[in-house]
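Usage

Read records sequentially. Each one opens with the input sequence:
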Amino acid sequence: MIQEVYERWCHHPNLDPSYREVLCNMEETEKQDSFYTTIAFGTAGMRGLLGPGTNRINLHTIRKANVGFAQYICEHGEEAKQRGIAIGYDNRHMSKEFAMDSARVLATFGIRSYVFDALRPTPELSFAVRHLHCFGGIMITASHNPKEYNGYKLYDEKGCQLVPHLAQQVIAKVNAVADELAITADVNEEQKKLITIIGKEVDEEYYRHVVGIQLNPDVKKETVKIVFSPEHGTANVAVQELYHRLGYHCIPVLEQCTPDPDFAMTPTPNPEERGAYELALNYAKKENADIILVCDPDADRMGVGVLHQGEYILLTGNQSGSVLIEYILSQLQAKQLMPPHPVMFNTVVTSDLGEKIAASYGVETEKTLTGFKFIGEKVAKYEVNNEKQYVFGYEESYGSLIQPFVRDKDAPQACLMLAEAACFYKEQGKTLVDVLYDLYAKHGAYEESQTSLTLAGQAGAEKIQAILSGLRASQPQEISGMKVVRFEDYKECRVVDHGKESELCGFTKSDVLKYYLEDGSWIAIRPSGTEPKCKFYYCVRGVDLDEAKAKTKRYQEAIAEMIQ
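and closes with the structure output:
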């Protein structure tokens, strides 16, 4: 079967010429992985390795996705086609080509599109959908994945990534496309008129909205040095422009400001990994900078380093999120700007600390599954009924949203608010780490960490499923000697709380397991939706950080033994 599909690709007259030589030179292992399945179009769109094959990201699999999306748009009538689709892209190999090809495929269905003239942040694409009153959006990006990857994400008319019940409609149409190689992107002169190039006019509106998030616009900025890196990606222009306009002292990591698809000057473009900070740390030590801010290539995630007592401490996404919550909510309260029914959103694998901070300010927390689309969905709901008012949303994976004129994680917003917070607290003689430690003293010490098991290919996918199935079946009663007091299974929608079983409500089914321990800690396990990984999340509470770190090590070792 694999050989048959491979041969069809090799000899198909519509095959893009750039793929033919690669196919001819494929070794057997690569051939197997490229053709053993069709790349999954899931609820988060598509993400995968670049290259020819049914299990790769390439012009033909992107076209297949676009045909399915186009059919979905057409079902919503002529108005949807005329409102059109906003299209953005990042710095990766083939991103611009995929974006323009997407516009052409949509045009063959009579659908308008608005394509950015150059790479832009993912949050600006979300903003553009709403600003231009489009029916939806397409973002070509692989986010924080390595250079060998690219991806395709879909947005609804609210600027939110498609939630499962909408995504399933598109998925069904994509899967029904029998032959991706038969699709062409040839457009006539009339169809070309459906494609509009957009640029600075949208930038200016986006910047205007971001500037509007400031809580203390007159804070003393000149004393705080910020080293900033876009990791070769889309945050470069937006963040530097915002800092320049507002008077922040920004020192860009120049070697990482070029839109290099090979990420030549960084070991990794992922702010979750220490390698993303190497060059920025060198800059910071030379300049004696107060903070380091690093964005991933599509500018939805932001990593933070803080100079504290002579050394640079890298914050996790949970920690930077907690500091932002404290700053934003304290200022809303101090300025009497807190809305009557404030709500904050985070996910089921996000630390408990943020929720405790929010509660101290009278702010309710609602949890969602992993994926900012679920937060965006709740924002849209409350925007209509006004039962609750949004004050913040974040995930443990270094992404947050300050104000919801965007419906996705927004690193430029986060960079601006974090810089403002650093300036505000420096006037009080505090670093952002001081603020974090004050939160530990008030709410308890938390050690939040994440590990992952990378298992690529068909065998890897099967192994990940076996791990989850085994844990689901065994349902451990203790982990490293600590009693499991509550167990949540988001796939089977069940809860076992102190031995009593009930239904888990309010969440879309998802392959997530979560164990609550007697000491107030929890451990969650889920397969990644975008990478060949099984992820393990730890939120461990201790009387102090040393105890929390020691317990975390024991829990991680216990989990490693359980999944062998």
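Summary fields computed downstream for this record:
- The longest helix spans residues 317-334.
- The mean pLDDT is 96.
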